[in-house]
Specification:
single chain, alpha+beta, 8 strands, 36% strand, globular
Length: 169
């Protein structure tokens, strides 16, 4: 696997070290801000961005209790402000996959609607985000040929699992 070093601007305002594969999948490490840290847990999260699908995936170290080990998916846009400098734009729609079940929760549609209503998101961005959401669900979380699901059809994606094995950046 060929990797290019990148820096990623996270929504917390931090520039984080990471890598990008030739398939345009990014992994980066973001320090968890002190107010969100869980005592005794790691203080860094690894995020994975599948840029061509418009998603960012993480297994947050801030999750505890019934959510510990679960996955969080943000719908995003990726802007390359300069070569190797990536800015992640959160598009408000999120999915949560609890760890011990084959189900997902769709979150923050109210924030998405607010952004569209107040003009901070244009219609083209909203349309792209909604399409990316449906493609992600259909391609990674649903299998209409199997009822009921015994496992996710393609989640977490193989590219993410491969990047999870890399040492800290």
């Amino acid at each position: 696997m060929q990797l290019e070093k990148v820096r990623v601007h996270h929504r917390t305002g931090q520039w984080c070290p990471g890598v990008r594969t030739s398939d345009n999948v990014v992994a980066y490490d973001v320090p968890i801000l002190p107010r969100w840290q869980v005592p005794g847990r790691p203080t860094v999260d690894r995020c994975y961005v599948i840029a061509d699908e418009g998603v960012q995936i993480a297994q947050p170290n801030t999750f505890s209790g019934v959510l510990e080990g679960g996955w969080y998916v943000d719908l995003v846009d990726v802007e390359e402000s300069e070569p190797g400098l990536l800015v992640i734009h959160d598009r408000d729609i999120d999915l949560l996959m609890p760890p011990r079940s084959i189900r997902y929760e769709l979150l923050d549609l109210d924030e998405f609607a607010d952004a569209l209503e107040d003009g901070s998101m244009d219609v083209a961005t909203a349309v792209r985000t909604l399409r990316n959401t449906q493609r992600f669900i259909d391609g990674r979380l649903r299998n209409l040929d199997e009822d009921p699901l015994s496992e996710w059809p393609d989640f977490p994606p193989a590219a993410v699992l491969e990047l999870a094995q890399l040492p800290p950046f």
